[in-house]
Structures are given as structure tokens and as C-alpha cells.
Amino acid sequence: MDYTISSVAPIVLLPFFAFVINAFLARKGGKATIAAVFLSCAAIAGSSVYAFRIFKDFVWGNYATNYHIHKFFTWFDLNGGGQEFTVNMGIYIDNMAAVMLLMVTVVATMIHIFSTYYMKDDMHYGRNGRFFVYMSLFTSAMLGLVLSDNLFSVFIFWELMGFCSYSLIGFYYEKEKTGNANVKAFMTTRVGDVFFLLGIVAIWTAIGSVGFVDIYNAVDSGLFTSTKVLGMPLATFAGLCIFMGTIGKSAQFPLNVWLPDAMNGPTPCSALIHAATMVAAGVYLSLRIYPLLEVGELTTFVAYIGGITAFGAATIALVQTDFKAVLAFSTISQLGYMVLGVGVGSYNAAFMHLITHAIFKACLFLSAGSVIHSLHDHHTHQHVQEMPRMGGLRHKMKYTWIAMWCCTLAIAGIPFFSGFVSKDRILGDALVAATHNPVMAVPAALGFLGALLTAFYMCRMMFLAFHGEPRDKEVYDHTHEEKLSWNRNAPLLFLSIFTLGVWFSGSLTGQGLVKVADYKNGKYEWFQTLIEAPKKGNFENYKREAFGNTDSRVKDSFEMTKYDKQHGLSEAEYHHVHKWHVIGAIASIIIAFSGVFIAAMMYLWKKWDPGFWVKTFNRYYRTLQNKYYMDELYIKGMIQGMLLPFNNLLAKLDMGIYDRFVVDGSAVATKFVMKIANWFDNLFVDTIMVDGTGASVKFFNLVLRTFQSGKIQFYFIMIILVLFGYILAL
Amino acid sequence: MFLKIMFVLSALLTLGGAFLTASSKNLMHACVYLLACLFGVAGLYATLGADFLAAAQLVVYAGGVVILMLFAIMLTGGVQEFVNKFGLDKTPSMGSGKTYTIAGLSMIVTAFIVMKILAPVFKTPAQTDLPAFTSTVEKLGVLLVTDHVLAFEISSILLLGALVGAAVISRPRRGK
Amino acid sequence: MISLNGYLIISFCLFLAGMTVMIARKNIIAILLGVELILNAAALNFAAYTRFVNQNLDGHVMSLFIIVIAAAEAAVGLAIVIRFFQIKETIHIDDATELQS
Lengths: 730, 176, 101
Hints:
The complex is a heterotrimer.
Chain A: H1 5-25, H2 31-61, E1 69-77, E2 86-93, H3 95-118, H4 128-147, H5 151-169, H6 176-207, H7 212-220, H8 223-226, E3 228-229, E4 232-233, H9 234-249, H10 258-261, H11 267-276, H12 278-288, H13 290-295, H14 299-318, H15 323-343, H16 347-374, E5 376-377, E6 382-383, H17 398-412, H18 418-436, H19 441-466, H20 473-478, H21 490-497, H22 502-505, H23 526-530, E7 545-546, H24 571-604, H25 610-616, H26 618-625, H27 630-663, H28 666-688, H29 694-707, H30 712-729
Parallel strand pairs in A: 1-7
Antiparallel strand pairs in A: 1-2, 3-4, 5-6
Helix pairs in contact in A: 1-2, 1-4, 2-3, 2-4, 3-4, 3-11, 3-16, 3-21, 4-5, 5-6, 6-9, 9-12, 11-12, 11-16, 12-15, 12-16, 14-15, 14-19, 15-16, 15-18, 15-19, 16-17, 16-18, 16-21, 17-19, 17-21, 18-19, 18-24, 19-24, 27-28, 27-29
Chain B: H1 2-23, H2 27-47, H3 51-76, H4 97-123, H5 137-145, H6 149-170
Helix pairs in contact in B: 1-2, 2-3
Chain C: H1 4-24, H2 28-54, H3 58-88
Helix pairs in contact in C: 1-2, 2-3
């Protein structure tokens, strides 16, 4: 297949054009809204066709690890004066990007189809169209990110996604809670983004390019270790900065607070954020810069972050009663597994978990949407999300029940399902890493404990919602019988097909025990064979070329990569690895089944009383319910303790030095004192009235209000001074 | 020789115009000095062989922007308050000794920054064999609709936006 | 005499003059004059680099876009100034502090 503008660009541009057109259509209401919805769905379906062509070329055609497509055009070229300054933009497709493209487009298509059902009620508010406008832009930005060949365009799409998630989380902006949630999501991810930008700048100054291929080559030539920034190798600095971006976007340990609040958006958008697009982008990025993390010796740090997130989020999920909150924390926990996989060097399993998780988590969220949408409280006219008011729903919603069980078994890591294949590989590799380096034993142990908890809380959720007797009879009786329909159950059932492990591993168990797809031509274990970390040999006879209407690429014939049972390891090493993988597999099977069993004993057969455990661990239970007090810590400690005094200092500098001493003399000084008193009053009152998250919005308002004195010329002078400092520092 | 005289004249016009723009006490005069400065820049473009740019500079700046500025000055001039809403003295609108002091300090700081950037550039040896002047109009036209077509289209939309925006912003409100 | 350095120094002086105007003046229109000076300094640099360094006309295109943007900026900026004057009956910059608190 030719890679030209007309065969690659539509993947990104179709949803983007849908966004542009819908931005005008959506406001009209009535038939125009229906047209907008249809257009969005058709656009994403169309781009999934294009993505499938690329996938087919990569996986059915050239079945080779060193097959890449890299095309670029010069964005601008300002060479001169002995300085090279050329910025290129382009596409870079390798096996990982091809798989990712197919996953994103297919999952997004399913979510779009489901959204036509879920957002039906919003139709007469005329905001159905607005929802699809953002969804199209969101998907388009994600696809652009996947296709990008350099960090700079990744950053552009990254920020676009940040904006879309902000708009989608705050979709029901008339509720105050929602408004707070989207500001929180935006601000928290922004912390990571600043570091990400810093990392990009550091790489740019060192190697003069931010293209992935250039970075890989520079890593190979040792440039990243010889250059020093702030006393550490550039690889460590840049890797750390970019990984901070991942921490923000993928909601890893210190910055995980935004994801649970992102639940306030409509459920399909949660599915999109949690499964296919936003959080996946973070992990995808850290996989792309994997050589940097490896050279910078950051893997232990990454593994610890991943392990802590995987375990911590799983413990919080144990006590949640909100249907979607359980899923939100399970997302954070599963993302922790992916990052753990990156940290312990199991590149391919981390990516496989990204794909399998995207599929089953999208399905779980859509199922949750299907459940929530059909439960209705007739007193408050709200949808019911609380699990204590559900129960026994399997009689009413058969198809959702089936789909959701498939995904639950997958996420719990039961054999034959995809989650088992990928999670078990990550855990197996963590065990191997622990045998090489005892420090890694902690993340590995956290991973196994998290797996137990995952199986437990997911089954708890299923038992509480679908099994047993209905606890809220009124809600139950008002629920309609579920019928098979193209936009409600069909996407769920379609996605749940792909929760089977056989699609990804070629064998039923994922451990090569029961091979069903052992083709004669050796395409067994296609995922493990094709996806591998970028390494030296892969870029040797590799050409990049300009993007155009024709494909002038010399079609190099690539040798089909054979499945290597030993993964390129020596015999002794392979035996060691294999031994620990088997131990890991057995352990995770036992753990998964015991998790399910404990959940069943507690909530299905009611033999054990969950209340006993709550009483025994009362204090810990409280801590979990408050999510380890992280929100409070951020508001009280960080914002009020550190940022507010800093803000005051800046305000004093602004008003104090420029106005008071230099320009207006004593006259403004009077005004200044008056203002200080005014602020003090505001602050005092605000601090007293601080009330959970609401304060953060108030606070940012206050920051913006006091930070700007309104004097443009002062800002201009500040810019000059900052510039001066920057140039001096260089 | 002609080129050198042209360069010196244009440079003097530019620098003198810029200096007077910065120091004139009368806004109207400052605007006229800006016009002179822009003429000087057009002359400098001409000595660089940028014929189309020189023409565009004259047409757009001298013919458009400065005239627009003069009209704006005439529409808004005449009102000069010396006290603000708190009854305190205001800085004179054309600047006072204090503001010029601050500006001078900032100027020194900026000069440091720019000199630090320019120093390596000044050290590079001057290029001696420069190509002869040719007309740039055709090449520029081709460039605009091939390599830079996206920027070209975007700037056309920007101009349209500016046109509509200016009309909308300065339109008197209904009911007033 | 006619060398890259000469043009760079001229544009440097233009830039400093524009910055002085932007900081020292308190009249909004005068500040816009300063912005025009700074934009001209940048455009002059582009043209000079094109002549003396790489001779492809990309620099001219950049200068052209700068002129276009300056025109748009002047139009919108002056419209805002006039609107501001209609509302406040002053164009003193220190009165434009509505966003302050």
C-alpha cells in the first residue's frame, strides 16, 4: 500500500473536518443536530477504515519489526548566520502506531455509536451536537498524536486533548461540581505539561531536533549520556521531564487526583478519556521515549511510580459505592500496571496491556453508561449511580450483564481473557526484574497485591449491581427490560468479543499452552513478535522522505520476523526467565481466582460479613474513603501553604516596587495599603470558608484577580527582566 | 556609490525618525516622525534589493496604517485630564521624566540581552560577493502560492477577521 | 558599509526606540506607534538576512506577513482604542485597569 497524503491524512482529518462542520451545525438544533451526530459517527468510522488499511499492511503484509514509515515536510526553515533552525513535521508509523491507530479508531467508533443512545435525552436541550463536536476533535487529536513523528507535534495534540477533556468533563457546566472537576483536571494535567515542555526544550537544545528517530539515533550515539544538564545526564533530565507529562496525563501517583473527578462528564466521554484517548496517550508517550528512560536509568523510578499507583488506586476502589468511581479508580490502577510494565522493561506487555485495557475499559464504561442511563429516580429526576440502590439487575439487562462480565473477567486476570495475557506478562517481567535487582521486589509485590484487589473490587461491583435481590425496589421496577438495539448493546457485545485473550496471544491461555493460531507460516504470537522497543539495528537501512502525493519510497523487501521463543536471550537466561514467568502465571491465576472467591463469599453468598472488616480497619477505611486525603493535601498544603504566599509576594513586588517607589510615589502607596487590607480581608474570609474543592476554583479566581494589576507596561518590563535572566542563565 | 548614499540617507531617516518618535512631546508630531521612519525603512528595503517589500511598506504603512493612526488621534484628541478618578495626579500622557528613566533602564537591560545574542553574529566574516539585484516580485508570488500557501490563506482570513472585528468593535452600540 | 552588521544595528536601534515608546508613553495610540517600530525592526532583520545570508526569498515572505499582521493589528487596535474612548472618554493607559479586580 502507498503511503501518501490521501491514504494517511484522512485518519486525522476526517474527524477534524467533522469537528469544523459540526461546530457550525451543532448550534442550529433540530435536524441539523441529527446531521451533526451522523457526520461525527461517519467520520470516525471512515477513519477506522483507513486505519484498518494501515494495520493490514503492517500485520498481514510486511510482518517485520524493522518496518517503519517516516514521512515529513519542512514546516519552516530559517537557517542562516551559522545557525541551523529547521522544524519538520511528519508522520511516523511503526507496528506500535499501526496497532494503536486501529484500536483508537475502532474503540472511538463504538463509543460514538453508543453516544447516540446515551445522549438522546440531551437532544431537546440542543447540546447533543456540542457533545459530538468535542468528541470528534478529541479523537482527531489523539489520532494525530499517534501519527506524530516528533515530540513537538505530540505536544500540540497533547494540549488539544487537554482542552477537549476540559470541555467534555465540564459538559454539564450548569452543575457546580462539574465546573470544579474540569478546572481540576485541566490544572492538574497542566503541572505535568509544563515539565513535558521543559523536556522538549532540553532535547531540542542538545540535539537540534525533537523527532523520535533523531532521538533514538542520539541515544545510540551516546549524546544523551555525555551531555550534562544540572549535574545529571541529559537523558535523565529530559526523560524525567517527559515522564512527568505522562504522570499528569495518565494520572499516576502524585497527580492522580483529577481522574476520579473526571467522572462528572457524560459516561461515553469517560469511556473515551479512560480507554482510548487521553490516559492512553501518556503511556504511549512513555513507550515512545522508552530508550531515553532506559539510558537515563529512570526505570526503577518509573516502576515504583507504577507499582504505587497500581496498588494505591486499587485500595481506594475497594470502598467506593459509586458505580463509575470504581471504574475510575480501576483505570488509575491499570494505568499503574502499564507504567510498571514500562519500568520493568516489558515494553511489549505494557503496550499490550494498553490495548487490551482500552478495549475492556471502554466496554466497561459503556456498560456502566447503559446501566446508569436506564436507572432513573423519579423523585429527583436524576440517574442512579449508587451501587447500594442497584442489585438484581441481571434480570432486566441481560446483554449488558454478559458484556460486563466478560470485561470484568478480563480486568480481573482470569485465564482465557485478554487482561490475563497482558497483566500476567507485566507481572512475570516484574518478577524477573526483581530477581535481577532486589529493589524491584517492592513494585512487583505491589503489582501482585493490586491484582488481588482488582479481582476483588471488580467482582464486588458486579455482585452488588447485577446479582442478589434488588435493594431499591422502586428504581428496579421502573427499569425497562433491555432489548437488543444497534446503538445500545451492539457496541458492548462487539467490544466484549475482543476481551478474549486469543486475539492477542494466539493461544488460549496466553502462555503458549493451548495454541489455537499456530499457523504454518509462523505468525503465532503476532503481538509479541511485532512490537519491540526501538533498538539500534532497526534504523540502519531506513530512509525518511518527503510527504507528497506520490509514494516514491523504494519498497524495501523486509524479511518476515519469525517468532523467537527465547526472545533473543541465551539458553541459561531463557530458562531463568521462563521459570519465573511460570511462577508468576501460577501466582496470578491463584490470586485472580481468590479475589473472585472472596468477593463472592462476601457479596454473592453473604457468608462473610464485609461490615466486620470495615469495623476492624475503621481508620484505614476512612482514609480510603477520603482517597488518602490527597485532595486535602493539595489544597491545604500546596495551594494555601506555598502558592498563596508566593502569589502575595509577587503582588507586593508588582504594586510595591514599580508603583510605589518608582512611578507614582506616595499617592499609589495609599491605594496599595488599602488594597493590601482588601486582600487580607478576602484571604481571611476565603480561608475560613474553604470548603473542599470549591475553594480551589475560588482560589484560582483570586490568583488571577490579584496577580494582574492591569498595568500593561509593567508586564512588559517584567517580560524583559525574565528574558534577561534567561539569557544570562544560558 | 548610489547605493551607499541611498543607504546612508535611509539609515539617517530611519534612526532620526525613530528617535524623534520616541522623544517628541506632541503625539501628532510623533506620528509624522513615525511616517518618516517608515519611509526610511522602505529605503533600506530598496537597498536590500527587496523591491516588492519596499513598495508594500510604502503602500501599507505610509498609505494605510499611519493615516489610520492620524485619524484615530484626531478622533480621540483634545481631552486631557490631569487627575484620575481618585483625584490623584496622573502621569502626563506623553510621558514624564520618571517614565523615561524607567524606559532608559529597560533599554540598557535589553541592549545587554540583544548584544549578547548579536555578538557571535557580528564576529562572522562579512559576505563579499553578493548577487546582483533582480526583481523579486515573480519569485515572491510563486512562493506565496506554493510553499507558503497555508500561511497566505490564514493571513487572508486574519485580515478579513480584523476588518470585521474593527467594524464590530468601533460600531456605536444600539440604543445609545 | 552596507553589510549585515549595519542593518542589524539599525534594526536594533529601531527596536530600542520602539521599546522606549512602549514603556515611557502613557497614551495608548503612542504605545501602538512603538509596536509598529518594533515590528518594523523584525521585518528589516528578515530582509537583511535574506540578502546577506541565504538568498532564498523565505525571509521576504516573512517580512510581508509581518506587514500584513501589523496592518491587521493597527486596524483592530485602533478600533479598540476608539471604543475605549467612547466609553471612558480618555485614552490614558493607566485608566485601562478594568481587569484588575
